[in-house]
Amino acid sequence: FVIIDEGHRLKNMNCRLIRELKSIAQAKDCNRLLLTGTPLQNNLTELWSLLNFLLPDIFDDLDSFQAWFDFDFSKDDNEEKVVQGELQNSVVTKLHQILRPFLLRRLKADVEIGLPKKHEYILFAWLSDWQQKMYQDLLKRQLTESSGKQVRLQNVLMQLRKCCNHPYLFEWPVDADGREVVDDVLLMASGKMQLLDRILSKLKAEGDHQILIFSQMTRMLDILEDYLSWKGMGFRRLDGTISNDERRQAMDDFNTDKSIDVFLLSTRAGGLGVNLVSADTCIIFDSDWNPHADLQAQDRCHRIGQTKTVMVYRLATAATVEEKVLHAAKQKLKLEQLVVSKGKFKDIGQKTDKNEKLQEGELLDLLAFDPSKSALGNKEQNKVITDAELDEVLDRSGKRKTGKGFMAVDKITSAFDQAR
């Protein structure tokens, strides 16, 4: 047998890894087995790539495979119509029947009856005054300077997401000696940083909590690192720049030393091959384009071997492009749950991986988000989450579902409850 863990890494049919593994399997003429928690992330082409590796004689032609299963929803932008149409489409059943002999799906709950519960919340922050001005300036610049080209729009979208995280991602103030300034301004400049500070302060006061904080941006991890040092909290860090030995040492330190309160991780580098079951709290500082990457990040602590209830807090800036991205992720996960959990498979959306380019129309849709349609109303109508509500959200029972400034994520469907 050739057994490949994290088999979804073979989703790109042209990557060097799949070519090397194919040559090894062919040379040894052996059976092949893929292990993965996410066999279907983006589209049917990726699924074919996995099947082609497993059974190259059967799944030998991508064009034929796509012709068998004509998943073309490009003419219908309404997600609910897509769902209803799919339920009535015999193509889905046909695909399910063909794939049944090759797929064996087991949930953590199926093999580990004693796995503790996981409760997830989305906590909303508002832009600080500094961020608000910067955000509006970025939007105005896009409207006046945009050439309409995809690359330009991609850049604007990234700048808006950086703005939602922290203004220091654009320019970090320095003192007379040229050293980066770490003071109250670092905290007050960002709405999400203020919310994070409130969460960490309460968890620290309770004691006996270890926390994972994920971000897509390594520069944001730099800001968080300086913040934790300023607050006197012990931490370790893992991103794509550290060696394997440093990686193992950091994980060992965190899992054995309870004085280390926080582990900072980049979402992609820390989402695979990492076991941090000593943590009972996971904070997603900024959501990944691919919602499966965030789910894998959560699984660093909610996995077999965990003995405590795990709390997941996903931070988002209200009335910004982040809210629109969360909505898109919700729709994707709804569809994924519908088709995968029932043994059905389909193209559940394209261009969601960070390395894939969003189309111009999708970018314009993201940039055109109307703040007045925010689930939270506006900043004046709904203040940030109160201390009393935050205490309820931090409670490990997960009883409180919605309120001003937060909403729960359903444990079955991973679909966000509507704020009321």
From TrEMBL:
Gene Ontology molecular functions: ATP binding; hydrolase activity
Where the record annotates domain Helicase ATP-binding, the positions are 1-57
SMART domains, A to Z: HELICc
Q: Does the record carry Cytoplasm as a key word?
A: no
Matching Pfam families? Helicase_C (PF00271), SNF2-rel_dom (PF00176)
Q: Which CDD domains match?
A: SF2_C_SNF
Keyword terms of this UniProt record: Hydrolase
List the Gene3D superfamilies hit by this protein, alphabetically. Answer: P-loop containing nucleotide triphosphate hydrolases (3.40.50.300), Tandem AAA-ATPase domain (3.40.50.10810)
Question: What PANTHER family does the annotation carry?
Answer: SNF2/RAD54 HELICASE FAMILY
Identification of the protein by name: Helicase C-terminal domain-containing protein
Q: Which organism is it from?
A: Prymnesium polylepis
